[in-house]
Amino acid sequence: MAVIHNGIIENFQRLRTELEQSGVVLESETDTEIVAHLIAHILPELNNDLPKAMQSVCSRLEGAFTLVVIDRDQPDLVVGARRNSPLVVGLGTDGNFLASDVAAFVEHTKDALELGQDQIVILRADSVEVTDFSGNPVEPKPFTIDWDTSAAEKGGHDLFMLKEIYEQPKAVKDSLLGRIDESHRITLDELNIDPLVLREINKVIVVACGTAAHAGMLAKYAIEHWTHLPVDVELASEFRYRDPIVGPDALVIAISQSGETMDTLMALRYAKEQGARTLAICNTVGSTIPRESDAVIYTYAGPEIAVASTKAFLTQITATYLVGLFLAQVRGSMFEDEIRSVLADLNDMSQKVDLVLDTAEPVRALARELANARSVLFLGRHVGYPVALEGALKLKELAYMHAEGFPAGELKHGPIALIEEGIPVVVIVPSPRGRAVLHDKIVSNIQEVRARGALVIAIAEEGDESIVPFADHIIRIPAVPTLMQPLVAVVPLQIFACEMATVKGHDVDQPRNLAKSVTVE
Ligand code: AGP
Fold first, then answer.
1. Distance CA 53, CA 122 (A)
2. What is the 99 CA–ligand 1 centroid distance (Å)?
3. pLDDT value at position 149?
């Protein structure tokens, strides 16, 4: 018997004791092993009916899990089960597939079936049956994967991450497609929340994890600016464990590339229980988070295969900005010509990101030069702060280096003690054409760290000559409006981390200890 298991079985200690008391010798400390033994134990009593054995065992399991089981004596049969963790079925012409993400089988078939909670799938080469945990037949929902087959290939790049970085201009463009009409108004047809309800909400809460949470932080700057609605951004893993003030007057936006992140899903469910309206911003059609939300705006990044999120981040920013502008449109908090002007800026971003990609070589050279640094700090102000956090996250997860992102104003409250001779400090410099005070303040921050020996790498817009005397290296990005800057400023940081990890010989697409979808809390 072989078992594949994703998730955590919370009552495994109790089940383990039970198995040991009945004489089973376990060889590992894992919760997965007990599933194999529980099935093996009950199978003979059920006339070797593997689906029935799976039903019986699943009904006893607590927690979140996806299980796939095969029995050596029934090699033509695969039985899968899911509770809270993802599992999708691919329907091929000469065989069927089970995977946690359609990306795994998209090169073989685009026809797929969604599985619901607490369902069991009985898969043979020529048939698929689905039941609930009690054995009652269930009609699964078919869907078609609209990704290009090339999505699952590297398309001439050495790494999926690099391919995905270079797909960003298209991803941003695709995420805007069909969402702006000829009269330059936003039409979010898929957002089936009554405009009346959107007029009545009193606050927005964003729940997300990791990179998606950084996109949420950026959404806060934009949505508060455009709508004057208060926006709270919550790390999903923290949200339901305190007593968040969330009720029917709140719009809760869950941002998730995979749509399966357990922390985000749990935060979303909590918000729904409290009566909030829920909106998912998601990249994976048919995944759990959009299915359980009142409304969904899909980001059209295409499949993101590298563990480190890149193109999904840019599309999450784009989608949350569209939602912010839509709220402003519905609530009348901006003039129509103002909305039009921001939309025109957003429309230009695909081309601006392209420009950054065309001039990325100095970033790679810098990464190679700094490959032996012990630690890298990232500073930003205003929208540069989430970008700093994202730059640090990329470096941690890919290059396994100590990296921290700080709001530059916080330096003097502690982090400045980290500055020592030669430490690289990457600074996201706000546009001097935005709020001049932000630019001036960051120049002071640069001087503070430089005076203490830091090597300053400024990410600054074209034409900002005032920064030249203060930086050791300058990475130029196109001059764009303040709220758009993150879309161009983060790209060199992605390339920096990717190159740094490559130089160090790490597996960039699958960094150690990490999974693409984090389906456990
Ligand atoms: C970023 O590079 C990550 N791998 C990670 O932080 C990710 O963004 C986070 O786990 C959230 O994933 P999701 O968007 O699929 O919910």
1. 12
2. 19
3. 66
pLDDT of 285 reads 84
Phi, psi values for residue 367, rounded to 5°: -60, -40
Question: What is the CB-side half-sphere exposure of residue 235 using CA atoms within 13 A?
Answer: 6
Q: Which domains does the chain have, with CATH numbers?
A: 2-144 (3.60.20.10), 155-357 (3.40.50.10490), 361-503 (3.40.50.10490)
pLDDT at 106: 86
Give the tens place of pLDDT for each residue, 318-334: 999 999 999 999 999 99
Positions in the chain whose pLDDT score sits under 70: 149
Atom of ligand 1 nearest to the CA of 261: 16
Query: In b/e form, how buried is each residue of 118-142, taking b as 16+ CB within 10 angstroms?
Result: bbbbbbeeeebebbbbeeeeeebee
- pLDDT for 409 equals 94
pTM of the predicted structure, to 2 decimals: 0.88
* Six token digits for residue 102: 């359609």
User: How many residues in the chain?
Assistant: 521
Alpha carbons 268 and 383: distance in angstroms, whole number: 25
Q: How far is the CA of 145 from the centre of ligand 1 (A)?
A: 22
From atom 16 of ligand 1, which residue's Cα is the shortest distance away?
A: 256
* Helical spans, DSSP H, in 382-421: 384-399
